[in-house]
Structure formats: C-alpha cells, structure tokens
Design brief:
Rossmann fold, alpha/beta, 8 helices
Amino acid sequence: MKEISEFSIPEPSLKRLPQYHHYLVELKSKGINLVSCSTIGRDLEFVPVQVRKDLQFTGVIGKPKVGYSVAELVVAIEAFLGWDIVNEAILVGVGNLGTAILGHERFSRFGLQVVAAFDIDPGKIGQTIHGKTVLSLAGLADIAPRMGIHIGIITTPAEVAQAVANEMVTAGIQAIWNFAPTKLNVPQHMIVHNEDLYSSLASLSCKLAKRFRAQIRETERLN
C-alpha cells in the first residue's frame, strides 16, 4: 500500500470517503469480500472513474477484473481519515447543540472522543451532562495542555466564538470544529472546519422551494 498525504486530496473526494466507508462496512456485514468501482459507483450513484480516483488516495489499488478487497478498503479509509486513532477533544458551549454532541456516542467510532466540556454560564458549570462535568471556560488554558488535547469544538453563539477560539489557541489546540455561524481568525497553523448549519438549511429550503414552484407552474400549465 503506497503512502499518500491526506493534505493532497481534494475536498470533494475527502467528503466522499465516509460514504464509501459506510457502504463498505455494510458489504462486509453481508459477507461480501470483493467489490468493483463499477458496483460502488452504481450503488452510490457516483461515476466509476471518480470512485477509482477517490479510493487511490487511501493507497489501495484495485486488481483488474477482481476489484478491491472490502476489508482492506475499510481499514485503509479508517487509517487515512484517522479513525483508527481516537482523538480526544474538548467542547465549549453546552447549549442544545453542545449537549447533543456530548451525548452522541458514535463519534468514538470515528476517532473522536469528547473528554471535557466548558461554558461561561454559572448555571451550567458544575452540572454533569452525558457523563461530563461542565467546567468553567477560565480553566481551559490549563486543562487542555495538561491533558494533551489538540481538538476543540465550538458550539457557542457567534458573538463569543472568536473569544473562545483565542482561548483554544492559547491552550495549544491545533484543530477546531466550529459550529458557530461566524468566520474565525486564527493562526495559519491551525486547522479549522466550519460546520455551517445555516448554509445547509438554506440550500435545502432553496431546492425545495424551486421544486414546489416548478410543480405549481406545471399545474397552472395543465389547467
């Protein structure tokens, strides 16, 4: 298996890898040992050539007329995405979204385990939520380095997200998963992934509205 840096992979290909993984795990559970790009493309509605290019980033090469080993691909994707290594993270902002993330146990299957939660609300500090005691944000700069934490999750309102990001930078956090609807200004070495729920909702509602408008126009045309 050849080694390829994950930083060379295009973002669309990177986002497709978890879809391949879910599909391959399903195949494995059914006792299917081999699969071709054509079959994957057909079942996931991807172009087979694109499937082959995406999977090449994991370092696994399929055999002509044989395809890929399902088990080998599962392991390769997990290793490429870092899912074979459990990364510990801290979360700041224990509101509805933060609480939901704390209670989402499946994250550990994909290499992420939230080990501590922080907030500035005196009413939340000291509470135990999904097995985690909510700590004061003031302690983040001490606790994160001591625990060797490198991933931070921000689920705060937009107006305080930058201040939280600053605290994470001071604490030595290297990567931020940002759910706050705002752009963060952080040093260049930081890895930031913005989870823009509002943009996703806007895309969904816009597509649905276009469909409804098309249906209305078709109805008017027929009448």
